[in-house]
Amino acid sequence: MVTIPARFNGPEHSGNGGYVCGLLAGQVATDGPVTATLRLPPPLDVPLAWERAGDEVRLETHGGALIGTARPGTFEREALPFPDADVVAAGLASYPGFHSHPFDRCFTCGTARAEGDGLRVFTGPVGDNRTAGPWHVHPDLAEHGVVSPAVVWAALDCPGGWSADFTAQTMVLGRMTAQLMHRVDPGEHLHASGRLDDRQGRKFLTSTALHRPDGTLVGRSEQVWIEVDPELFA
After folding, report:
1. Helix (H, G, I), strand (E, B) or coil at 216
2. Could you tell me the CATH number of the domain that includes residue 35?
3. What confidence category does residue 133 fall into, taking pLDDT thresholds of 50, 70 and 90?
4. CB 132 within 8 A of CB 87
5. In what order do the strands lie in the sheet with 189-200?
6. pTM for this predicted structure
7. Would you place residue 63 in the very low, low, confident or very high pLDDT band (cuts 50, 70, 90)?
8. How far apart are CA 73 and CA 55, in angstroms?
9. Domain count for the chain
10. If residue 92 lies in a helix (H) or strand (E), which one and from where to where?
11. Does 233 have pLDDT greater than 80?
12. Ramachandran bin of 45, using left for φ above 0, alpha for ψ from -120 to 50, beta for the remaining angles
């Protein structure tokens, strides 16, 4: 059984997509990439149940509604290149969420979240359908000195959404394939980036990455975002 605390929201009343995908991934026995798919907006502060069928993990309500699934996955594209300090600074300065934000209390990218409460990963456009920005890993994001993999999955989430421009259409994360190559420690300063790779109707295909300042790839993801009616999250 697991409960998603209200702190880890994306839209105001449902779970942060990257965080919930990271919780699902944590139940899959592999050192490689994991693909997590969200079927319903994840409810907050409600006990949920794990179910397993073969190599698939399912997260369900106690009434049997399917919230999401996860299984071993594969990447389809090369990892994003390292964005240097100048690119990261330019992305932060151009972050559209400072002026207009559909979910300003999002755990990952919400401008209404204080340091140590949210991640405050603010990634703005830097050309070539890419975004970049810094992630300063506040010590309050760690539990017992450890930043959980689910929190790192959350940091990999929104740079992809911003590459597809949340201000142009309201989107939610539908699927995320990710892999963490290194542990993230409290106090680290990382470079976050995203890229819009393709659009297929209401679907936006994106990639994201986290790098250390020396260029080390810490984690990466490929995502599918779905355009939705904003009234669903009013």
Report:
1. coil
2. 2.40.160.210
3. very high
4. yes
5. 2-3, 47-53, 56-61, 66-72, 34-38, 171-180, 217-227, 203-211, 189-200, 130-136, 124-127
6. 0.97
7. very high
8. 11
9. 1
10. helix 85-93
11. no
12. left
